[in-house]
């Protein structure tokens, strides 16, 4: 039973879950197991974790649009939901050509609450991701949305969407990738834990796979910063505590 469950959890993570993560997942399911035994069983079962690779930033910053001040200031752990969101864009390769993924994350829980894919990196892409997040969360006034200075975020259309929903923009300093480090880590997890060594023939298959990962990330993947809970579990616990 233990062997089968460990193998299933490892396969569900697409060979990205290490010994410590597997131990935490198994303990959540009631197994009494330590890190040394997990490492031993991983070796016995031939479970080898994927190696990470580096990726470059893709958003375009050469424009004449006005930029917002950095209101977030790397405060990545807001006390409640819908207090601070963050977004960014990354690229994904398919046989049919590039795709671009825009996401919106609630920094309180690290949950991906909005996302959109397109073969072009446009303002429409970021607006669709933001609109999904707005529809899901229905935020009240006072919310901050943090992004880089890419034209997809500084455009008048995107800024109008923010202000019309009483969302205050915040933007990273020029060339300061650490100002949006949490979203960058999500992209790294997507590419290294899910898409590494997976070749997609079509953009449609990539879209389906990205959707699968976002569901896995939100509901299953454990986060050390969330006391070893998934984003959805963390939100649920916080709601119960506040009730």
Low-pLDDT windows of residues: none
Mean pLDDT, to the nearest integer, reads 89
CATH architecture of the largest domain: 2-Layer Sandwich
Report the principal-axis shape: globular
Distance between the termini: 38 Å
CATH superfamily of the largest domain: Ribonuclease H-like superfamily/Ribonuclease H
Beta-strand percent range: 15-25%
Share of helix among residues? 40-55%
How many helices in DSSP terms?
A: 9
Number of domains: 2
Briefly note the CATH topology name of the largest domain.
Nucleotidyltransferase, domain 5
Q: What is the strand tally?
A: 5
Description:
GO terms for molecular function: nucleic acid binding. Pfam families: HTH_21, rve, rve_2. Keywords: Plasmid. Residues 74-239 form the Integrase catalytic domain. The chain is 43% helix and 16% strand. With 243 residues, it is α/β, with parallel strands linked by helices. The protein folds into 2 domains: 2-49; 84-237, Ribonuclease H-like superfamily/Ribonuclease H (Nucleotidyltransferase, domain 5). Strands 3-2-1-4-5 form a 5-stranded mixed beta sheet, sandwiched between helices. Strand 2 (97-106) and strand 3 (111-118) form a beta hairpin. Helix 2 (19-28) packs across helix 3. The protein is globular and about 55 Å long. The chain starts with a helix and ends with a helix. The model has no long low-confidence stretch (mean pLDDT 89).
């Amino acid at each position: 039973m233990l062997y089968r469950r460990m193998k299933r959890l490892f396969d569900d993570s697409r060979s990205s879950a290490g010994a410590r993560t597997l131990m935490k997942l198994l303990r959540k399911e009631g197994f009494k197991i330590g890190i040394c035994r997990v490492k031993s069983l991983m070796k016995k079962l031939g479970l080898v974790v994927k190696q990470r690779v580096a990726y470059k930033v893709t958003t375009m910053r050469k424009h004449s649009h006005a930029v917002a001040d950095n209101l977030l200031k790397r405060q990545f752990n807001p006390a409640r939901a819908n207090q601070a969101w963050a977004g960014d864009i990354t690229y994904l390769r398919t046989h049919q050509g590039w795709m671009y993924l825009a996401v919106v994350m609630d920094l309180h829980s690290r949950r991906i609450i909005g996302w959109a894919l397109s073969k072009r990196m446009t303002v429409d892409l970021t607006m669709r991701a933001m609109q999904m997040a707005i529809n899901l969360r229905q935020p009240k006034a006072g919310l901050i949305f943090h992004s880089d200075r890419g034209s997809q975020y500084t455009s008048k259309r995107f800024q109008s969407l923010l202000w019309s929903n009483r969302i205050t923009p915040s933007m990273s300093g020029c060339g300061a990738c650490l100002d949006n480090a949490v979203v960058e880590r999500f992209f790294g997890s997507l590419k290294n834990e899910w898409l590494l060594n997976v070749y997609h023939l079509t953009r449609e298959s990539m879209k389906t796979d990205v959707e699968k990962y976002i569901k896995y990330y939100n509901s299953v993947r454990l986060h050390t910063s969330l006391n070893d809970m998934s984003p959805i579990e963390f939100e649920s616990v916080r709601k119960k505590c506040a009730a």
